[in-house]
Design goal:
The chain is an alpha+beta fold. The chain is built from 22 helices and 20 strands. The protein folds into three domains: about 140 residues, Hemocyanin, N-terminal domain (Up-down Bundle); about 220 residues, di-copper center containing domain from catechol oxidase (Orthogonal Bundle), CATH 1.10.1280.10; about 240 residues, Immunoglobulin-like (Sandwich), CATH 2.60.40. Strand 1, helix 2 and strand 2 form a beta-alpha-beta unit. The protein is globular. The structure holds CU2-O2 cluster.
Length: about 675
């Protein structure tokens, strides 16, 4: 191995045990960085030589660190080492952008390694982890590195705090090899007295929260422009979060809850309480809870440099609605940009989120991000109690809180308001002349046709890399999550034309609304969750398409959500090249909603659209191109020319009131049932 690729891999050691100083042995090989004395933080400088020789004693491998002229970190260090960190806070994101720029500006990998070794102990650990990840994802010379899942560096953001005391005990007392996994109970944040707790298994799912963190890492809203400006990122912000809300509502209906209510009035008390039971190990503080019926207030927090009134939010919201209804937005210099049928949603996504691509941040503000902030400081709006933000204030933990879904249901509704202003799809934009779907069947082992079974599954994950200041060796926690029996789709299609291609689009929605009534199409269309999308070759005449649920374009396998940098890594440079991107994707174990013990009635929708109108001509080879529906393709165009969510992203044409009336011959609907059994399957392996 060349020394350059060695240095590259050494960068990954900086993720290990984020709070232990950089000169303490890292990784399984007990690698020790030989840190120049002037790199050390003020606390350790006077002890330099003594410390280095003490911690160097058990070293396996010594790593030289180049002596470079050190960058001026300036106010980046103003976020304390023991503070919590959130990209939603403008000050934090400004400082993150600065550090990312410093990292991206390093001339080569050796300089980058030196710079990172220096920065690591001088800046906030969460900030460091984020900036290092963005940098490694976007530098030409580090793109092929395999980033570890954040759960390994900061398990405290994912796992009940009570686990850590037990894990520490296990790691200190029990030798490596005889340690047993520590079980996290499925219900630990609330009891059944709280109705909302019925869907806690969704909100608190580790894979779902990892996906959300990873999505925002791949699609940051701030930072260098070439990092932010990815193909259709504003539209993907809309679509990925729209699908989260659709999935959450589906899950709620399975649990006899009605759809989540939009958070429309910012001045009304919020009835949902949430007690996260997470402690930040870095900040040594608990994440604040929210009791029932709290109300947000104007923010005046000097510490975060946030001074914002609820009035501002209301003005931004009204201007966004005005832009939607006028059909254009106004840029900073007064130009009008039309919100067109296909590209308008992308502009609106960037404007509402808002990202630095927003056409006018002064005028349309920072609506969605600031909503997260107002909600996250509901308990201490002026910092009089010296408290930090609640879980909704950080994309790592936001999806745990019921109010996340109320806020995003409101955001989604604004997007839907826009979609209602553009033309409906006429029949010729839906049909595929001569293509008819004759039948659809779901086949699953041990179940009758068109029945999917769900149950609980236990899995283990090693948290030891994030557990600082204690003996080494794996410490597993065992958690329980939803799971489904894998199945196949069998679709028969008649093609009256010559041989040609189509795009097969598969969606699922509840058959009835929360009152048990059939849906109006205009409501049901927002309930459809995407299950898969893939190209098909159609021969002339009869065709049978078989596809496995495991091939879904939405999900990634369990191992990828939780991957460690030493395991589950593809071998070889080419395959590794896109692996960084690989943590993005809906966790496969959450592909199918829970269903009910009686068998929950759903409608499976399959469409085969005209490939010529869908296809993007580009090279799509790469390892992790299998979760493109929510995550796109790395360094490529979004691989479907249609609007995201097609054909359900617009209001139906004149005269269509029901799903049946919406169908053209190249679409078909099949009733299916999701059957939940309350049994728990033991872990598959210790990975
Ligand atoms: Cu993902 Cu609000 O955008 O959390």
């Amino acid at each position: 191995m060349s020394s350059a690729s060695n240095s590259k891999n050494h960068l990954l050691l900086l993720y290990d045990r984020p709070q232990e100083p950089v000169f303490v042995a890292k990784g399984d090989k007990k690698s020790v960085f030989k840190v120049p004395n002037n790199y050390l933080s003020d606390r350790y400088k006077p002890l330099g030589v003594a410390l280095q020789s003490r911690f160097g004693e058990e070293a396996g491998e010594e790593i030289d660190v180049k002596n470079i002229s050190l960058p001026n970190l300036g106010d980046i260090t103003s976020i304390g080492r023991h503070e919590n960190f959130s990209l939603f806070i403008p000050k934090h994101r400004r400082l993150a952008a600065k550090l990312i720029n410093i990292f991206l500006g390093m001339r080569n990998v050796d300089d980058l390694l030196a710079c990172c070794v220096y920065a690591r102990d001088n800046v906030n650990p969460y900030l460091f982890n984020y900036c290092l990840s963005v940098c490694l994802l976007h530098r030409e010379d580090t793109r092929d590195l395999d980033l570890p899942s954040i759960i390994h560096s900061f398990p405290d953001k994912y796992v009940d705090s009570s686990v850590f005391t037990r894990a520490r005990e296990e790691a200190t007392i029990v030798p490596d090899g005889s340690r047993t996994p520590i079980e996290i109970p499925r219900d630990y944040t609330a009891s059944d007295l709280e109705e909302e707790h019925r869907v806690a298994y969704f909100r608190e799912d580790l894979g779902i929260n990892l996906h959300h963190w990873h999505w925002h890492l791949v699609y940051p809203f701030d930072g260098p422009r070439d990092v932010v400006n990815k193909n259709r990122r504003g539209e993907l912000f809309f679509y990925m979060h729209q699908q989260i809300i659709a999935r959450y509502n589906f899950e709620r209906l399975c649990n006899y809850l009605k759809r989540t209510e939009r958070l429309l009035n910012l001045r009304e008390p919020i009835k949902e309480a949430y007690f996260p039971k997470l402690d930040s190990l870095v900040a040594s503080r608990s994440y604040p809870a929210r009791v029932a019926n709290q109300t947000i207030s104007n923010l005046n927090r000097e510490v975060d440099q946030i001074h914002q009134d609820i009035d501002d939010m209301e003005r931004w919201r009204d201007r966004i609605f005005a832009a939607i209804h006028q059909g254009y937005v106004e840029t900073e210099n007064g130009q009008r940009v039309t919100l067109t049928e296909n590209e308008g949603i992308d502009i609106l996504g960037n404007m509402m989120e808002s990202s630095i691509l927003s056409p006018n941040r002064t005028f349309y503000g920072d609506y969605h991000n600031m909503g997260h902030i107002f909600l996250s400081y509901i308990h201490d709006p002026d910092h009089r109690h010296l408290e930090s933000f609640g879980v909704i204030g950080d994309s790592t933990t936001a999806m745990r809180d019921p109010v996340f879904y109320r806020w995003h249901a409101h955001i989604d509704d604004i997007f839907q308001e826009f979609k209602a202003t553009i033309p409906s799809y006429p029949v010729d934009q839906l049909a595929y002349q001569g293509v008819t779907i004759n039948s659809i069947e779901i086949q699953s082992q041990g179940s009758p046709a068109n029945r999917i079974s769900t149950f609980w599954q236990q899995s283990d994950v090693d948290l030891s890399r994030g557990m600082d200041f204690q003996p080494r060796g794996p410490v597993f926690v065992r958690f329980t999550h939803l799971q489904h029996q894998e199945f196949n789709y069998r679709i028969t299609v008649n093609n009256q034309g010559g041989s040609r291609m189509g795009t097969c689009r598969i969606f699922l929605a509840p058959k009835f609304d929360e009152r048990g009534n059939p849906w109006l199409f205009r409501d049901q269309k927002n309930m459809f969750i995407e299950l898969d999308k893939f190209p098909v070759n159609l021969r002339s005449g009869q065709n049978t398409i078989t596809r496995s649920s495991m091939q879904s374009s939405v999900t990634i396998p369990f191992e990828r959500s939780f991957r460690d940098w030493d395991t589950n890594r593809p071998q070889g440079g080419d395959q590794l090249a896109q692996f960084n991107f690989c943590g993005c994707g809906w966790p496969h174990h959450m592909l199918i909603p829970k269903g009910t013990a009686d068998g929950y009635q759903c409608q499976l929708f399959v469409m085969i659209s005209n490939y010529t109108n869908d296809h993007i001509e580009q090279d799509t080879t790469g390892t992790c191109n299998d979760a493109f529906s929510f995550c796109g393709l790395k360094d490529r165009l979004y691989p479907d020319r249609r609007s995201m969510g097609y054909p359900f992203d617009r209001t139906p044409r004149e005269g269509v009131r029901t799903l049946q009336q919406f169908l053209t011959p190249n679409m078909r609907v099949q009733d299916v049932v999701i059957q939940f059994t309350n049994r728990t399957v033991r872990p598959r392996s210790n990975n």
